[in-house]
């Protein structure tokens, strides 16, 4: 079969399996299989494909037909124009998290970049910590409860030459940290999907392959965010900032949670929801009172 015929065949198989971006996924898998760029694949459209490569490609298509995400099949993805390893131990990095980082780097006060520690809470694959380390030049603490996730994050730090700028901690939220108000900036992409949605409404690529530990935010999706909110004043410096990725339907509830007055704790002097490029609630931004 030629490159063009093999690509057409793979695309048809994925379309019949209900894969939304069948053409794009079939192309990416063939590029990886043949070791060619998109342009090289196009220029070699009429070239014959060796039988062993055809077999390898069919195996990749078979995995995608079962709705395994392309990033897991290939073991890698791009985020912030950087390469990252991914495994089923971590969520596949998404554009929503690039938006989170864009807002952090655009809005954070300069004094909060350099005046205290920076924490990536629920670090997963390490994309937030690595981007922050590279963009700010500051040292980052990256924390996650999952051994598997931390293994991937450390591998990514080595891969992106950021390992010397990141301290990795395994813990359940803040339990592995000293309860000292030493962080000037905390960024988090915590589990925020409701348990009902995790069990019933997610796409097969997410529900069957991505780690539920990193998705399941409890009955309303706010369980982990609530725990974070009540512990933040114990670790965040006066005037320190927090950015948390949230679900598109959670803005009002999260604002109410962060504006709630807690006895014997400093309050958040500023709480806002940042809308993503589609106009949806996406990021909670809070500033602790001084």
Description:
The protein is α/β, with parallel strands linked by helices and 290 residues long. It has 2 domains: 3-66; 90-288, Rossmann fold (3-Layer(aba) Sandwich), CATH 3.40.50.150. It is built from 13 helices and 9 strands. It has helices at residues 3-16, 22-34, 38-43, 51-65, 70-74, 95-107, 110-114, 127-136, 147-159, 195-200, 204-207, 223-235, 251-259, and strands at 76-79, 82-85, 117-121, 140-144, 166-170, 183-188, 236-245, 268-275, 281-288. The strands form 2 sheets. A 7-stranded mixed β-sheet has the order 5-4-3-6-7-9-8, with helices on both faces. A two-stranded antiparallel ribbon has the order 1-2. The relative contact order is 0.11. The model has no long low-confidence stretch (mean pLDDT 95).
Describe this structure in a few short sentences.
This protein has helices at residues 3-16, 22-34, 38-43, 51-65, 70-74, 95-107, 110-114, 127-136, 147-159, 195-200, 204-207, 223-235, 251-259, and strands at residues 76-79, 82-85, 117-121, 140-144, 166-170, 183-188, 236-245, 268-275, 281-288. By secondary structure, the chain is of the alpha/beta class. Strand 1 and strand 2 form a beta hairpin.
């Amino acid at each position: 079969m030629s490159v063009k015929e093999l690509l057409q065949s793979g695309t048809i198989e994925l379309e019949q399996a209900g894969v939304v971006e069948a053409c794009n996924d079939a192309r990416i898998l063939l590029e990886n299989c043949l070791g060619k760029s998109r342009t090289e694949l196009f220029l070699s459209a009429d070239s014959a494909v060796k039988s062993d490569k055809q077999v390898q490609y069919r195996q990749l298509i078979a995995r995608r037909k079962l709705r395994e995400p392309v990033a897991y099949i290939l073991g890698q993805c791009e985020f912030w124009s950087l390469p990252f390893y991914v495994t089923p131990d971590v969520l596949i990095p998404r554009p929503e998290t690039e938006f989170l980082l864009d807002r952090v780097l655009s809005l954070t006060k300069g004094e909060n970049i350099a005046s205290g520690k920076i924490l990536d809470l629920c670090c997963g694959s390490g994309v937030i910590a690595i981007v922050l380390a590279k963009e700010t030049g500051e040292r980052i603490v990256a924390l996650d409860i999952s051994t598997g996730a931390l293994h991937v994050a450390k591998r990514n730090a080595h891969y992106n030459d950021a390992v010397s700028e990141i301290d990795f901690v395994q813990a359940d939220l803040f339990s592995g940290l000293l309860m000292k108000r030493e962080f000037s900036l905390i960024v988090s992409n915590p589990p925020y999907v409701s348990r009902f949605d995790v069990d019933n409404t997610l796409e097969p690529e997410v529900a069957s392959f991505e780690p539920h530990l990193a998705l399941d935010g409890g009955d309303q999706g706010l369980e982990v965010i609530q725990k974070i909110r009540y512990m933040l004043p114990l670790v965040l410096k006066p005037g320190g900032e927090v950015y948390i990725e949230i679900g598109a339907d959670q803005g009002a509830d999260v604002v109410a949670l962060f504006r709630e007055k807690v006895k014997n704790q400093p309050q958040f002097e500023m709480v806002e929801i940042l809308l993503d490029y589609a106009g949806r609630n996406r990021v909670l931004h809070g500033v602790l009172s001084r």
